[in-house]
Amino acid sequence: MQSQSKNPTKPNVIIVFIDDEGYGDVGVYGATGFQTPHIDKMASEGMRFTNFYAAQPVCSASRAGIMTGCYPNRVGINGALFPFHNTGLNSDEYTIAEMFKDQGYATACIGKWHLGWQKEFLPLQHGFDEFIGLPYSNDIWPYSSQTGERLPKDKGRGKLPDLPLIEGNKTISYITSFEDQDNLTTMYTEKSVEFINKNADKPFFLYLPHSMGHIPLGVSDKFKGKSEQGMYGDVMMEIDWSVREITKALKKNNIEDNTIVIFTSDNGPWLSFGNHAGSSGGLKEGKLSSWEGGQRVPFIIRYPNKIPAGTVCNKLGCAIDLLPTLAAMSKGKLSKNKIDGVDISSLFKGDFTSDPRETILYYYGKNNLNGVRKGNWKLILPHTYKSYQNDIGNDRKNGKRKNVVITEPQLFDMTRDPGEQYNVIATYPEKEKELMKVVEYARRELGDLNVGLAKGTGNRAAGHSNN
What is the 3-class SS of the chain, one letter each residue? Predict the structure, then answer.
């Protein structure tokens, strides 16, 4: 059988996708109170982006973007799906896993899925050969995420079903305690290493969407109490260990040089959980908002001898770009479905004179366009959001956010003001006009409920289940 190392046109691909990790939660992005030496080593041996964005600042929508190469509202996925929803990822969408599978790759999803819990929506029906993990977030269970006790069955989250651990299409056990949560990161990592060892003689795609650091936080005894920051820091240290174990497996099988490893997050930190939340690294707000702290995330890619080591890219990138980019890098094909992602492989090669992605659309809610970015300029549009600048919780307790209404457009220069503190719209009216052209296109194509447009000409429906 031909060695992988002699078939570089079909690189293995691993995407490590962290939950609720903020822009400031990796050592090379300024993390304090804990260390991430193995992720930092990825950056020193690869490339780190400073302007990379999740598809949306919330769970299901963000994952729809990485799977389909589309803004999530194009494919009908908004917000976070719960067990009472009968929607999920439409089978007509062509996923990143199907793109790899059609090339003969072995494919696995190990971790949190969150694109529909019914069988027709689970990973095996969307291009993955293997799946083990949770169908949605680890706080979607009938237990208190503060105390761990079983909640009353007739009210609130107590009405939720037990949280299933699924292998393939079947439930194999349930997550019913904090101790069960503590095992998730290690279990996902061990299963990932098994998959790598099993498929070391052929190309593979491993999608590893960790449940952590979503609340309720869980960490194994290996790292409990090890960081200065507290439990969240412990969790990030175990995530770093997970990256180490995966790297060790690649080295053991002599396939490290033929493997693309990507590390990124689904959205910014859930700041209202205080010391059980991450850091936005000085960016404004966090998860569930269209400010930079909600969508700008860490992004590191390592591909030895192909991506220049120790480089920093300041150009725009988005999770929706991974499907077309990895298709180009592996000689894969795309479907006829219209997508929003672009091929950013020129940036991975170190060609920083190129600008493959010109704009970012900040959609959130049911289908609300809250802002747009073009180059180094960002326009915030009138909308209502919930701010964290009110009451922050601590030690598993959630704080309370307050409604903030933005009545007029605001313009920010991302070069000088990534914290979005200084509205310069009066100084640069020509930039407002330029960015409004992006807004007008987005509204025609995808709609904007902020101005009463439920959809545009390019929206597609989510999948629907009768179960």
Answer: CCCHHHCCCCCEEEEEEECCCCCCCCHHHCCCCCCCHHHHHHHHCCEEECCEECCCCCHHHHHHHHHHCCCHHHHCCCCCCCCCCCEECCCCCCCHHHHHHCCCCEEEEEEECCCCCCHHHCHHHHCCCEEEEECCCCCCCCECCCCCCECCCCCHHHHCCCEEEEECCEEEEEECCHHHHHCHHHHHHHHHHHHHHHCCCCCEEEEEECCCCCCCCCCCCCCCCCCCCCHHHHHHHHHHHHHHHHHHHHHHCCCHHHEEEEEEECCCCCHHHHHHCCCCCCCCCCCCCCCHHHHECCEEEECCCCCCCCEEECCCEEHHHHHHHHHHHHCCCCCCCCCCCCCCHHHHCCCCCCCCCCEEEEEECCCEEEEEEECCEEEECCEEEEEEEEECCCCCCCCEEEEEEECCCEEEECCCCCCCCCCCCCCCHHHHHHHHHHHHHHHHHHCEHHHCECCCCCCCCCEECCC
